[in-house]
């Protein structure tokens, strides 16, 4: 039987990780992997997480299961963090999932159960796991224009033209903030126009919000998803705690689904429980327990928010430094987009050949589409990257 299996393509980012690891050169720079790193290159455990773990170790009395859709306290805390009262609680079904990827997979399975003929529309470009999971599930998929490779900004006219082609009942996947892989975000006015168009088309928004707090602030980064939640009778949300709580390996995500009324919410909640049961039964609790403790304890929450703000401002500082250094070296403002983008990523506009030259000549590793992880830089490596980009002709 197993000899009938087809070899699967290797993950490009995992390949890049191995290439970087095997490179013996001193001074090599890893800008590929999508995890936050501090100035020393480490991915630290946040202070509030450490404190909550100590408290949990002392107080926890059981390792028994919670519930098929996770702990209700975690659901409530995350609904407050993401939606902030934008929709009545009795319209929101929720389920804890193994990470943001698990949340995306669960939402797509729910869509498939509710409307097998729905087409899921993705931004061009988007996070590679989005189309990969959709293809794996055998669902219909289409793209809407999003990023202008020349200006390195949102192609809003193209986006709106394409969204007007969406059919009633289709699902449009939107990045809530800190667009991955481009770093280019919609502004508040544009979000309002997107909402208007999707309502006119009878489409359902599906928001992937994986970087809340990494862009302009916790509430600012949630503004778009809250706007949509206040206007749509139905929508889906996949949220992740990996980045803003720094608990990547704890696999802590959540699905939130808005229904038009409380009766439908009950049915939706039952379907989320059923899908979790088919996939993994009960979700892991450790990360969710820590998040719940932090969000419900004023002192822990204040410390978490303060450290998260330090992380956000640090990345903004690196963006501004890189943009300024590129301006100095190039004598132009063509790299000003770096300071305007938000979150961990930016697309630098390099060709694949230039990306390969950066790797081979300068020991600088980035994804083939020239996406860089800003958090992979520090004050000392920014000038090195800037000089290398100019050297290869970006």
Written overview of the protein:
The protein is built from 15 helices and 13 strands. By secondary structure, it is of the alpha/beta class. It folds into two domains: 126 residues, Aspartate Aminotransferase, domain 1 (Alpha-Beta Complex), CATH 3.90.1150; 232 residues, Type I PLP-dependent aspartate aminotransferase-like (Major domain) (Aspartate Aminotransferase, domain 2), CATH 3.40.640. The strands form four sheets. A seven-stranded mixed β-sheet has the order 2-10-9-8-7-3-4, sandwiched between helices. A two-stranded parallel sheet has the order 1-12. It has a two-stranded antiparallel sheet with strand order 5-6. The longest helix is centred in the C-terminal third of the chain and has 33 residues. The relative contact order is 0.17.
């Amino acid at each position: 039987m197993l000899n009938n299996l087809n070899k699967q393509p290797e993950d490009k980012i995992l390949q890049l990780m191995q290439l970087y690891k095997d490179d013996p050169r001193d001074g090599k720079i890893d800008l590929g992997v999508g995890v936050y790193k501090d100035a020393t290159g480490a991915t630290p455990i946040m202070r509030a997480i450490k404190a909550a773990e100590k408290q949990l170790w002392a107080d926890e009395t059981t390792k028994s299961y919670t519930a098929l859709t996770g702990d209700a306290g975690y659901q409530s805390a995350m609904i407050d963090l993401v939606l902030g009262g934008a929709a009545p609680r009795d319209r929101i079904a929720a389920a804890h999932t193994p990470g943001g990827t698990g949340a995306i997979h669960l939402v797509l399975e729910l869509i498939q159960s509710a409307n097998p003929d729905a087409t899921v529309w993705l931004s061009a470009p988007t996070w590679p796991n989005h189309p990969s999971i959709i293809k794996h599930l055998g669902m219909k998929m289409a793209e809407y224009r999003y990023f202008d490779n020349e200006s390195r900004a949102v192609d809003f006219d193209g986006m709106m033209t394409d969204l007007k082609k969406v059919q009633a009942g289709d699902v449009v996947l939107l990045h809530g903030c800190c667009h991955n892989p481009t770093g280019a975000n919609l502004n508040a006015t544009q979000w309002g126009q997107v909402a208007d168009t999707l309502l006119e088309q009878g489409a359902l928004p599906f928001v992937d919000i994986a970087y809340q707090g990494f862009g302009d602030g916790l509430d600012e980064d949630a503004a778009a998803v809250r706007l949509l939640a206040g206007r749509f009778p139905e929508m889906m949300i996949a949220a992740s705690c990996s980045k803003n709580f720094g608990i990547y390996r704890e696999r802590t995500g959540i699905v939130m689904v808005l229904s038009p009324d409380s009766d439908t919410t009950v049915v939706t909640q039952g379907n989320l429980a059923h899908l979790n049961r088919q996939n993994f039964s009960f979700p892991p609790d450790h990360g969710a327990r820590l998040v719940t403790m932090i969000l419900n304890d004023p002192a822990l929450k204040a410390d978490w928010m303060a450290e998260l703000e330090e992380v956000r401002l640090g990345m903004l500082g690196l963006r501004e430094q890189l943009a300024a250094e590129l301006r100095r070296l190039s004598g132009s403002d063509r790299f000003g987009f770096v300071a305007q983008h938000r979150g961990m990523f930016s697309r630098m506009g390099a060709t694949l050949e230039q990306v390969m030259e950066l790797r081979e000549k300068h020991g600088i590793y980035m994804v083939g589409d020239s996406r860089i992880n800003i958090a992979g830089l520090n004050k000392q490596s920014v000038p090195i990257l800037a000089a290398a980009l100019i050297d290869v002709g970006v």
